[in-house]
């Protein structure tokens, strides 16, 4: 069985990883242990912080557990974090980090000349690198490669090895051990800075990392290693930086969203013609948003260059990127190619809106679309039961209500699940669906994704996304799907859908083939079975 | 003979009331929320019908099934009816308890 590795680079890469983590939570990667690496220049990036918190929450929910099948949180995730350090003295910008002013006068002169040939002297060589590469991909590729190689050299030297370098070392060790069984998928955009800079060089940088660390004894064979990535073109925009903001040297270069389409085109041409990219990557998934992009920084007066404030909302293209990773990890053919294969598909576009069906995410072979809808629908229903019916969104018991219900029905095997563990599951659902913060509605990941498609269709009925307390109270959690045949059964004239669902919950339980071990895993598998039976997808 | 009638009335009414209690328990829907009230409502209905049962046995036995006959026959019937009423009360609880244990994970499980 192939070993799975995911590398998320830059702000967009982090949001794709967020979508990927949610796919793991809904149970799309059964019986898998997945190694995740976040790779950024911007240690404090809001999107990076958000996804790392989410994965840590996932792991707390999964604590002590193992990979399972046909249940929620079915895969085991191992998170590693690496960031290039641009915060110390002498590391703030290109000029300092490349030590242009060291060596003899003649060397300094030559260094400066070669730098000036590729990088603008006044701006590109002097902007603050701690907020990423700001769409300067030529600089970014060099510095990201340098960052990874520097980490390998520090590890070989064995002195002053940073925490992030050790984490990168652990990740690469697992990758090296997996050998030709490794499948590596890289998330990042090709229109911005850090992701666009890194995607072309990561396979080569990891190969050289292994070579340096092993002192030439080991390497990655690109004819056997399976690398895949997304070609994610522009899908959001933000405010154009004004002259006032660009006045300081550290902000002299700020990514300008109006150039994103041009950046995307240039990157696509480069990827098509670059022999290293063509040799390293087996699959590239072409994902884009061929209509007007929505702004992500409506509340800010300046262009957000990075840092904790860069916490953009989620978009359906990121879910599609995560689905591309699913395709790459689950495909049984097409990976023994010598040159990159491109994968793409189109979605219906009518009345100025996209219409996504269940078959537009993971395909429709072997009922994959139905399986995806079944799992995401079950998770969304459970999120609504926890947040809406059991009112966790407003601080009430949430998932604990299910344990109370089981106790009422004399199903006592889940009594050992603690209140703190229930709060963690509730918190995950808040990140997934929605919550209320100081009585204000805050959309979670799925609500944000759906809002990027509205008024187009998206698997679920629009009524499944209420955003006011009064509307939420009216929600019937058994009717979230667009297709009525997947609504929970009514159960007769005097019953209702929730009643028949609880009857199913009572009569079912976790099954042996789900390979669940801990009490929490059994509990989640039990609920998964009750909801998926209620949804009535025919998966065989 | 009149004793048998009284006891039969008690048993039949007890069984009918128990059946009604089971129907009511099943008609009460499972509620969502962190503190669902449905278990308590089922239990409440069970005990209300537990009190209704002896009253109904006695009233129906007295006004509907009272045999025509001499004072001794009536006295014997009343005595049997009284015993049947008390027995019906306990029989209801006993059968309710057994049913509650048989369907311990279902709605009837809320009776005990």
From TrEMBL, chain A:
Official protein name in the record: Uncharacterized protein
UniProt source species: Chitinophaga silvisoli
SUPFAM superfamilies (alphabetical): Tubulin nucleotide-binding domain-like (SSF52490)
Automatic annotation (TrEMBL), chain B:
Residue ranges of the TM segments: 6-28, 44-65, 77-99
Protein keywords: Membrane, Transmembrane, Transmembrane helix
Keyword Membrane: yes
Protein name: Uncharacterized protein
Species annotation: Chitinophaga silvisoli
């Amino acid at each position: 069985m192939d070993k799975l590795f995911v590398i998320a680079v830059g702000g967009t890469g982090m949001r794709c990883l967020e979508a990927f983590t949610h796919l793991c939570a809904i149970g799309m990667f059964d019986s898998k242990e997945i190694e995740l690496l976040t790779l950024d220049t911007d240690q404090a990036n809001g999107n990076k912080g958000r996804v790392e918190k989410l994965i840590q929450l996932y792991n707390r929910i999964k604590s002590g557990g193992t990979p399972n099948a046909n249940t929620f949180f079915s895969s085991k995730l191992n998170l590693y974090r690496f960031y290039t350090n641009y915060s110390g003295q002498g590391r703030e910008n290109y000029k300092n980090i490349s030590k242009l002013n060291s060596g003899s006068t003649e060397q300094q002169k030559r260094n400066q000349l070669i730098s000036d040939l590729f990088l603008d002297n006044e701006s590109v060589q002097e902007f603050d690198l701690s907020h990423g590469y700001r769409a300067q991909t030529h600089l970014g590729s060099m510095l990201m490669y340098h960052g990874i190689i520097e980490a390998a050299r520090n590890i070989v030297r064995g002195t002053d090895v940073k925490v992030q370098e050790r984490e990168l070392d652990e990740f690469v060790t697992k990758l090296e051990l997996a050998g030709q069984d490794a499948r590596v998928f890289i998330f990042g955009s090709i229109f911005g800075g850090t992701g666009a800079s890194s995607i072309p060089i990561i396979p080569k940088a990891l190969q050289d990392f292994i070579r340096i660390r092993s002192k030439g004894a080991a390497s990655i064979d690109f004819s056997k290693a399976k690398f895949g990535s997304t070609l994610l073109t522009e899908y959001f925009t933000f405010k154009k930086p004004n002259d006032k903001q660009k006045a300081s040297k550290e902000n002299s270069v700020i990514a300008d969203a109006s150039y994103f389409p041009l950046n995307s085109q240039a990157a696509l041409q480069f990827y098509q013609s670059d022999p290293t990219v063509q040799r390293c990557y087996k699959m590239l998934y072409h994902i884009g948003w061929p209509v007007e992009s929505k702004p992500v920084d409506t509340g800010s007066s300046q262009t957000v260059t990075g840092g904790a404030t860069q916490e953009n909302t989620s978009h359906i293209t990121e879910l599609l990127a995560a689905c591309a990773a699913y395709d790459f990890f689950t495909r049984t053919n097409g990976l023994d190619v010598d040159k990159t294969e491109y994968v793409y598909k189109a979605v219906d576009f009518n009345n100025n809106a996209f219409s996504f069906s269940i078959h537009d995410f993971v395909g429709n072979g072997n009922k994959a679309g139905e399986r995806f809808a079944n799992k995401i629908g079950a998770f969304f229903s459970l999120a609504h039961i926890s947040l809406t019916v059991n009112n966790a969104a407003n601080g009430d018991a949430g998932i604990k209500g299910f344990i109370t219900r089981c106790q009422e029905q004399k199903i006592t095997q889940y009594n050992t699940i603690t209140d703190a563990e229930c709060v963690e599951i509730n918190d995950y659902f808040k990140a997934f669906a929605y919550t209320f913060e100081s009585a204000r509605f805050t959309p979670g990941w799925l609500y944000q994704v759906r809002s990027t498609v509205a008024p187009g269709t998206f698997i679920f009925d629009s009524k499944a996304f209420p955003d006011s307390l009064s509307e939420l109270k009216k929600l019937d959690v058994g009717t979230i799907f667009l297709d009525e045949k997947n609504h929970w059964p009514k159960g007769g004239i005097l019953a209702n859908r929730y009643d028949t669902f609880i009857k199913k919950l009572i009569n079912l339980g976790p099954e042996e083939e789900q390979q669940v071990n801990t009490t929490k895993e059994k509990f989640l598998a039990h609920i998964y079975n009750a909801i998926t039976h209620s949804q009535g997808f025919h998966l065989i | 003979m009149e004793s048998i009638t009284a006891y039969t009335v008690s048993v039949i009414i007890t069984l009918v009331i128990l059946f009604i209690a089971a129907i009511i328990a099943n008609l009460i829907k499972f509620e969502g929320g962190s503190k669902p009230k449905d278990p308590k409502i089922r239990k409440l209905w069970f005990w209300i019908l537990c009190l209704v049962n002896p009253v109904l046995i006695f009233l129906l036995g007295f006004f509907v099934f009272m045999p025509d006959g001499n004072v001794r026959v009536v006295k014997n019937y009343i005595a049997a009816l009284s015993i049947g009423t008390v027995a019906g009360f306990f029989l209801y609880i006993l059968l309710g308890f057994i049913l509650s244990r048989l369907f311990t994970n279902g709605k009837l499980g809320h009776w005990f």
